[in-house]
Amino acid sequence: MSNPLRAQSMPVLTFLASLVGVGVVLQLWMLGTSLDGLLSQRDDTIMPALLASLLLFLLNLGLLGYTMRLDRHVRAYNSTSEIHDSQRGPDSQ
Amino acid sequence: MTEKRTHLPQWREDFPIRWDDDHYVTRRELVKFLTLGSALLVGANGAIAVAAQNRSVRSYDTKLICSQSDLAPDESLLFRYPTEEDPCILVRTSTGEWVAFSQVCTHLSCAVVYRKEDGKLFCPCHKGVFACGPGKRGAEPLEGPPERPLPRIELELRHGKVYAKGVVA
Description:
heterodimer; A: mainly alpha; B: 3-stranded antiparallel beta sheet
């Protein structure tokens, strides 16, 4: 990997993707519960499932925001290192 | 750098893809994609909540079922409502209350009957039992395979007659 910061952030990114994935699976479960409640006319499960799903979405949104910030940080490092490389010139490589 | 390349197989030189960088971008895009899916799932859950809120009495034309004097307590009468393809059962309970439900069992659509011995609705096909009272959702399943209640028929008692005026489903 050309950018060492990118290499370091890979495990973090993998962990974040896993967390978001677990959240989505839980949301699928909530959707199944809601649908079951709607079809069996047991409305008492629908609102808690909606609230839990909304909370998981907000958590996922927060994790996405963190991912994007991390990515910006990595890109910024990349561009500054390219500038340094170009200032050093081809002979220095 | 040149020395390092000499150890690489020919195909790596022909297709110099940085797989680690590719994996990084793939994971980042996966987080974006999953979050989009998460938003869609919240939307679907919200749609279900709205559908549950809007579910209420479906009104149809009022239809005369019988006179109040036609049924003694603990007796039942079959009728069809809202169309001729919708069999229903009207019950005058032992306490004198009037209740009516769809006669189609929510398990496998057999016809339920009123059981005088315990005042419950009974499906003879798979021995399903439903409560026969003025429940909010309809006739609640009590025993056997049915899991959903029988839809309740809204009744109106007027001038000594019994009318059907809607279906609670």
